[in-house]
Amino acid sequence: MDRIAILSELKKVLAPYTEDKEKLNNITEETDLIKDLKINSANLVDIIIDAESQYNIEIDFDAAEKMYNVGNCIDVIADKLNKTV
Amino acid sequence: MKSAGNDIVALAAVDIQRTISPNFYSKFIIPRERELYEQSSALKTVPFYSFVWLLWSVKESAYKYVKRLQPELVFSPSKFVVECFDASDDFLHGMVSFQDIKLYYRSRLTEDYISTAVDDSKSFEGVFYDTHQIDKSHSDSQSKAVRELALQKLTTALKLADLTISKADAGYPVIWQAGKQLDIPLSFAHHDCFVGYSFKL
Fold first, then answer.
1. Given phi > 0 = left and psi -120 to 50 = alpha, else beta, which region is B159?
2. Is the ipTM of this complex over 0.90?
3. What is the pTM of this model?
4. Is A38 in the B-facing interface, judged by CB distances under 8 Å?
5. Of B12, B14, B120, B23, the residue nearest B62 (C-alpha)
6. I need a surface site. Which of B11, B58, B111, B136 has the fewest CB within 10 A?
7. Distance CA B110, CA B19 (A)
8. Phi, psi torsion values for B113, nearest 5 degrees
9. Which helix H or strand E contains A62, and what residues bound it?
């Protein structure tokens, strides 16, 4: 799965946690989950759990801490997907 | 340098079944902290899901406090370690550490929310913090309500008029009066229909 495909799937993961659907449709790798998408920090762990389910991967403790913007999320997911191939 | 940090978790907005799953809470709670649930008499009547969100609330509050001092800091909740829990009449309190920084927290647990404030002094001298319920959970409503709430208290505490609040690039709120930035650290928190502030004079 390439980064564009991961980004497309990631939008579905993020959708329940942001009220700004227009910003979600226009996200880039620089988009900050909290500052830009106004996702409440209390939902960050939900996003990690949902991403695990969406991509059938396991996101460990250390990797989870990097997922504060879209680019970092894609890095972590791509890394985990590569390891499961 | 002074700082401030607070956080709120609205319990109606969390998924309780998901919260109590080890796969969920182990993302930010380290084994040593997990053991505190059975070890601390102060937590006897606290449901496990509230304990999980209590830890989150303390860690997030401490992160906000340190972020003001270290603007490049990225939130790594497992690196903020909650050391203990003690009970007072109307709040839980204890210590949370990050590297060589030790902070004290006070948390209020109700059926509806968990709110926490942190400070570098156990006495919380000069620290003002409060939590309010609002009608709407939209981010614009939260932002407006928490500013009004904080400005009301700041105006009374400082006996100054014409205070305004803006956001620093790092994301934390700053207070202005007559074009001059005041050296008063302020922290905001909101979740669902609850908003709160913390500041230190």
1. left
2. no
3. 0.94
4. yes
5. B120
6. B111
7. 17
8. -155, 165
9. helix A61-64
